[in-house]
Amino acid sequence: MPAAVKSVSSVAFIFGEDDFAVKQRARQIYQTWTEELGGMDHEIIDAAVGNSEQALKALAKLREALQTLPFFGGGKVVWLQNCNFLADDRTSSSSAVTETLGEIARELKEFSWQNVRLLISAAKVDKRKVFFKTLDKLATVETFAAWSVDDKDWAGQAETWALKSFRARQKTIGHEALGELISRTGPNQRQLDTEVEKLSLYVGDRPEIGMEDVTAICTRNKLARAFALGDALGDRDLPRLLKRLDEELWDMKFDKDKSEIGLLYGLISKVRALLLLKEMLREGWIKPEADYTRFKGQLERVPADKLPADRRFNPLALNPYVLYKALPQVKQYTQAELVRAMDLLLRCNQRLVSSGLDEALVLQQTLVQIVTPQAAAA
User: Which tens digits make up the pLDDT trace of 105-138?
Assistant: First the structure.
């Protein structure tokens, strides 16, 4: 992400799946251009449409705006905002829309940009189309990919972004508090921005933000709540574990994206991380460390060639703070118990998929078996 508004040509094209970053950057450029050119003839055209007819109307407004001279003289900025018909969906693939975009692409090549600037912001874009290829040559193009849990360094990017946002508000935050903040928000820049703003207002004139502030005011998103279930398993805290499971099962009634299988896979990931951490401790690659910063330093020195290439089995692919919180939990289980836990979770998976048993009951039974010491169970 650009650190500040940089110099751009008379045409700027900002796009990407990170909707928050795209809007933020486009707004920066628009404000800078309008301040430079002055005047009151600037136009913002809403290009978030629902069908091809609306897309054609937005493009007609764009043509009209570019061809209309500023009423009071001076310069003019035209912003085609939130454009959602530049990808490969049904509206974008309409022959009328495709043809009109091709005509506008030719017009933009021949357009005299004296005192006129064009800004286009969009989400998904099909780079194979003529309109994109024209803008790629003609415009200053910036793309913003959304953070994803599949990105190895998403947590580092999120931490860097949060620290910069806190500094802009003249605030500082401790390393552990920052790690907790990132684990609560996950790879969600919009929510992270909201939580940074909330924390800055919550502490008032106090410059330092601590762990108690984060736990008091910051919201856990779906990913963070899944971490909470795994943490209860790692702590071998049966009452808290069953309570968290009940909360997840209740949320599932209102969230179609959640499922018992999804919860199970999160628990498998947790046990796998504990197993790998135990092995890393045995190899001497890491040592028990109470300081989060020093723990991150240890992770950076772990020989990458000794770890699996598959991200699902590579502990370094996880958020460092998640590993840091799991480190003391390793002592709660022996290696044999963790191997047994993986076997129990595998059987749980089979029962969820192939039996007609109540899914909640199957999960509860499995978790009770995992956290109950084998001697007590016998």
Answer: 999 998 888 889 999 999 889 999 999 999 999 8
Give per-residue pLDDT as tens, 201-247: 999 999 999 999 998 998 877 666 667 788 889 999 999 899 888 88
From the candidate CATH numbers 3.40.630.30, 3.30.450.40, 3.30.2000.10, 3.40.50.300, the one assigned to the domain spanning 11-143: 3.40.50.300
Which tokens is 232 given? Answer: 């209860």
**CB 152, CB 311: distance < 8 Å:** yes
Q: What is the pTM of this model?
A: 0.57
Q: Which CATH architecture has domain 222-377?
A: Up-down Bundle (1.20)
Longest dimension (CA), the chain: 87
Distances, alpha carbon 253 to alpha carbons 170, 258, 354, in Å: 42, 9, 22
CATH number corresponding to 154-217: 1.10.8.60
Those residues of the chain that have pLDDT short of 70 are: 1-8, 71-73, 149-153, 222-226, 257, 374-378
Residue-range domain boundaries for the chain: 11-143, 154-217, 222-377
330, with CB counted inside 10 A (0-12, 13-18, 19+), is buried
Q: Tens digits of per-residue pLDDT, 132-158?
A: 999 999 899 999 887 776 666 677 788
Which pair of tokens denotes residue 378? 């016998």
Token pair of 49 as six digits? 């449409």
